[in-house]
Amino acid sequence: MAYVSGYAPEGMTREEVDALPGATVLEFGTDWCGFCQGAQPAIEAALAAHPDLRHIKVEDGSGRPLGRSFRIKLWPTLVLLRDGEEVARVVRPSSRAEVDRAVELLAPPA
Q1: For labelling alongside 20, which of 28, 67, 93, 106 has CA 20 to 30 A away?
Q2: What is the pLDDT of residues 56-93, one digit of tens each?
Q3: What is the crossing angle of helices 96-104 and 34-48, to 10°?
């Protein structure tokens, strides 16, 4: 799976996210958010180099349980998971390099 362009309404529970196998980039934000729109080129470029990563964009907002379970406060926030466990987080990325550094942490341990 590669880069996903639009945020989808919250459709997963925390339990489902915790059970995801492999590497996942969970992105919280909204389509109307200026910070989210501004970060998309950096996110897209970084994820294009890793088409094997699962990218899930979750539309977040006040009172949405999945975002609250991850304590999301600013958009966009990328939560990088390996087998359902958080290994890195990037809040409001402003460059591809920020996202690249986090994605490197998703590599399986040697």
Answers
A1: 93
A2: 999 999 889 999 999 999 999 999 999 999 999 999 99
A3: 50
pTM for this structure? 0.93
Does 90 fall in a domain? yes
Distances (CA, A) of 5 to 45, 65, 85: 12, 22, 24
User: Is residue 41 a part of any domain in this protein?
Assistant: yes
Structure tokens at 3: 């880069």
Look at residue 104 and tell me if it is in a domain: no
Residue 62 CA, distance from chain mean position: 18
CATH code of the domain containing 66:
3.40.30.10
Terminal-to-terminal C-alpha distance of the chain: 24
Shortest CA distance to 54 belongs to which of 92, 4, 104, 107?
4
Domain range holding 27?
14-95
Based on the structure, what is the number of domains in the chain? 1
Buried b (16+ CB within 10 A) or exposed e, 68-90: eebebeebbbbbbbbeeeeebbb
